[in-house]
Amino acid sequence: MKDVDSLGGEVLDPAEDQRIADAPPARILPDPRVIWLMFRRNALLFSLVTGAVIVAVAAWTLTRTPIYEGTASLLVEVATPDVVDVKAVTKDIATNSEAIDTQVRLIGSPDVARRAAAAYAALRPADPKSATDEREALAQVILANTTVARVGATFVIQLTATAPDPQFASDMANLVAQQYIAAQREAKVNANSDAGKFLQARTAELRADASAADAALQQYKISNGLMSAQGSTMAEQEISTLNQQIAQAEAELAEKEGRLSAAEGQLRAGGGGADVGAALGSGTIGSLRQSEAVASTKVAEMESRYGPLHPDLNRARSELAEVRSQIQQEINRILSNLRADVRVASSRLSSLRGSRARANGTLAGNNSAAVGLMELERRAEAAKGIYETFLKRLQETSAQEGLQEANARLTSVAELADEPVFPNRRLAALVGILGGFLAGFAAIAISEYLRGGIRTKSDIEKRLRVRYAGAIPTLDSTLGKERRTEPPEEYVVSHPFSIFAESFRALQAFMMLGGTKTTGAKSGRVIAISSALPQEGKTTTSTCLARTTAMGGVSTVLVDCDLRRRGSSALLIHKARPGLYEYLAGEATLDEALVFHQESGMYLLGTAAPQPDARDPLTPENLARMTAELRERFEVTILDTAPVLGVADARAVAACADRVLVITRWAKTSADAVEATIEILLAAGAKISGVALSQVDITKYASTGHQDIYNYQRQFRGYYAN
Description:
Strand content: 5-15%
Low-confidence stretches: 1-24
Strand order of the largest sheet: 7-14-13-8-12-9-11-10
CATH architecture of the largest domain: 3-Layer(aba) Sandwich
Number of strands: 14
């Protein structure tokens, strides 16, 4: 037993409801088969859009002016190597990041660009850009097309120049780098030269000042008697010498006085001076003492030998007395010499002391003039120190002449580019392909979003909420590469086992199986074939379905209820004869109005001409009488109605049928039109069994959805004979 909603429309049967209830929960991600289906059915659109994007990108790439790039690298050295170990006039670059960023700004300055322009003019004199009046414009071009950037946090600076000419691009990068280094070197040379000139002038001034200070100092010394030698004045040296001489004289005097005092003491002791130290050391005294000893020995011998008055003894005694007299005289002379030495030493000491007193007076006078001397000495030393400092710096600066090095060096030169950086053909190709794919997918998405036509079983069941009756392919799509030689209604007769004919048998099975009739069990079934709009294949479907049903051994009649277009009638009725008009008006019997199709065994109740006036023969009474008689005569009655949205007769015709099949053109008729048709039919009391898709191009992948039989047509090729 079928289920009928409140308006009489047939809904999904309980078995279908149970299948949906037992279905797995909805996917979190979209079904890949649905995505593949959408892609396959929009493959042509995807190809066209993708191709158009690729062609557009290729055309854009080929019409762009190629831009080439030249890249050079500089290494900023915070400390340049010293050829000579002297302090430079200009300082080295600091090691902080701000100093390196400052160098980046200097490289990209207009001054460096002008220098590079002048160097380019010298390098390429034949280039029109090298003209003198174009020099400033060339500098601006170099400045605008050269990018200077620091490489990360390193001391490497990269210069990138771009130009339509690869040679010009590499020249710009190299010349900017070279001119920056040359500018640095020139700045150092100029600074060193300026410093040398200043130091020379200042050193000459300071030398004159130092000479003047020395002259004043010497003049003051001479004027004040402050001439010195070995670090002291003449007076000081004289006093020092006198002090030494006085000390020596005092020592000599003390020594001589000691000798004299000792000698006089010996004389007072009665020694006769014989034991005086000076006498003992005298050679004369020694000789006389020997003579005295000989004489004494001789006297002693003679006294023992001779008597006291013996002449020889007296003579010997006289000789002894003479010798002793000579000794005493020599001793007296020595004592006299000692006294004389004491007097001389005392006199010399007194003289030295007098000289020292006079020298002390001179020294006291010199001390008062020493204050001015020290002031002049300080001035002279200061002038000399400043002069020597400047002289040393001048010598260092002169030693650096021509040895200055820049704080940067060229680590890599810009080579001549083989490929342009713009447009990047590889990147353009990648962008074109990826962009084409993205645009193609976007076109598919837009096409699917804007798609108003009904295509799949899911569209019918989920959006229209009615049963899916099946799909009717176009005859051409079932033939493949074969050519169609007959119309569809004749093809189902000549090729009953074709896939095209099988689609109508599937519709027959859908419409005949299940459901109920409005009358007794032995009465025939009345089926109405309707559509929303013209040209949806309704008449072709009705005719082919009727012929297929009749060929299956079921007595079938096709009633052409489209009185204005008479599409079914035009296939078999080609001359004037009684038809549906005459039958409904009672002017002809049913047998007189029927036309028999010999090849299929189908009967047709149609019209020989369009509706002649505005009178409507398809009234409910006439339709009830007609269907009642047809039920008694035929097992299946198929009513080919007019389009529902345009002709009101179709509602009454559909309402009198046991089941209504709505035909909609695949991918053409909008869902809104079909939904409106269903609402109209339900409101008229029609019993809608389902919706079938017509004119389906089954050569397209999953043309009616991946759940339909045409998605598996290749697997059933052996079952069909087209």
